[in-house]
Specification:
This protein has about 400 residues and is α/β, with parallel strands linked by helices. Helices cover about 45% and strands about 10% of the residues.
Length: about 400
């Protein structure tokens, strides 16, 4: 038969972890695996601003005709302003999620910049690895976090200094996935200097705007690069900060030397997108355009993002505090320094396994924990579980 030679590929390990968590009868279990925001009730709710915008769309939207290859222009404008600031006049290309923006970037590099490789942080979000490989772009790595579970900026810069001229360097704008370690302003300046002197093309992945230090603060590095360099690629995701995960809402912003070149590049993007998904899905982007285009809804959304950010920050501080009586506050102090939902805890695969088997605490075997999945009322229990596998 035609399909006889087709084997099976392993499923996503994080989805397997979700299944194991769901079937665990322990009422005191913790789901720190899958990378979605959770509130105090352990739910991933639809923000109120999104619900209100959806209601408006139900009432007012009068057609479902295709939107163009670049998506909704109103969305392209407001998302660009959210990312680059209100004085930026660029229009983003709408994509199915941040993943779509990354895939579009990867195909753009493969088709329009042939021979250029891409450099990813070690470690990075696993889909970065596969998406560029799938597009036929050579993938290499620069060090980011050392074996001591500390950000290693010197090693990162030393490698970037050796990267062939013209290659693409992928940087996480904030809330680095999976480690939670972000570059400081001075570090970003140094990375910018290397990118400029080596004539590299930066591709900045911005999937967690608002989850680090705030909506504006998190955009600092992206805006620095866009201001200082003539050419930058930026991918943005609305999955986390708008809670629009399944509505597949994202954008690719391209900074070019001049307006004429922007037209050339955008024509290529529309052409590539036509062969990937034809035109992007509308709903999520229409929701975002409605929220950001309305002062009241925008105000409400800003408050909702800030509440999510503060919950994560409080959980980080709370966990370190809860580890104090166990003499582990210093060892895990980095959890309070990291940003965003994820924490490279520094726990070994064996400790992660013991946490799962003995305490029903589920996290990725690399030691990555989703801090947003912590139940704030059971911090002491989690700290005791961590202490027991650290001492055991
Ligand atoms: N980049 C990073 C670093 C991510 O963690 C994610 C989401 N897990 C994305 C991009 C893309 O997310 P989405 O496609 O849901 O917008």
């Amino acid at each position: 038969m035609h399909f006889d030679a087709i084997g099976r590929v392993p499923g996503d390990p994080i989805l397997g972890l979700m299944g194991a968590y769901a079937s665990d009868p322990n009422p005191n279990k913790f789901d720190l695996g899958v990378g979605v925001y959770k509130d105090a009730q352990g739910l991933t709710p639809i923000p109120r601003s999104v619900k209100l915008a959806e209601q408006r769309l139900v009432d007012r939207q009068d057609t479902k005709i295709y939107i163009g290859g670049h998506g909704d222009a109103a969305f392209g404008k407001v998302i660009n302003e959210l990312v680059l600031g209100s004085d930026s006049k660029l229009i983003a290309t709408q994509t199915p999620g941040g993943t779509g923006a990354l895939r579009l970037s990867a195909d753009f590099i493969a088709h329009c910049l042939p021979g250029r490789g891409v450099w990813l942080s070690d470690p990075t979000w696993p889909i970065h690895e596969t998406i560029f490989a799938a597009a036929g772009v050579k993938v290499s790595h620069y060090p980011y976090v050392g074996n001591d579970n500390r950000l290693d900026v010197e090693a990162m810069l030393a490698t970037l200094n050796q990267v062939p001229e013209g290659d693409v360097v992928l940087l996480h704008a904030c809330c680095h996935n999976p480690t939670g370690f972000d570059l400081g302003h001075a570090d970003w300046q140094r990375v910018l200097d290397v990118v400029r002197s080596r004539k590299l093309l930066p591709l900045i992945d911005f999937a967690y705007q608002g989850f680090g230090d705030g909506l504006e603060q998190d955009a600092w590095a992206v805006r620095l690069f866009a201001a200082e360099l003539p050419e930058v690629l930026i991918t943005s995701s609305c999955s986390k900060n708008f809670g629009l995960y399944r509505d597949r809402t994202g954008a690719l912003i391209v900074c070019t030397q001049d307006a004429e070149k922007l037209l050339d590049v955008r024509s290529q993007l529309a052409h590539i997108a036509r062969n990937l998904w034809s035109t992007p899905p509308d709903h999520g982007a229409a929701v975002v355009a409605t929220i950001l285009g309305d002062a009241e809804l925008k105000r409400l959304w800003i408050d909702e993002v800030e509440a999510m950010r503060q919950r994560i920050a409080q959980l980080r501080a709370g966990l370190v505090e809860a580890l104090q009586p166990h003499g582990l506050a210093e060892r895990f102090a980095h959890i309070g320094v990291q940003r965003g939902m994820f924490s490279y805890t520094g726990l070994s695969p064996a400790q992660v396994q013991a946490l799962r088997e003995q305490h029903s605490v589920y996290m990725v075997s690399s030691g990555r924990a989703n801090v947003a999945g912590i139940d704030a009322t059971r911090l002491d229990l989690l700290a005791s579980a961590i202490a027991s596998v650290c001492k055991g």
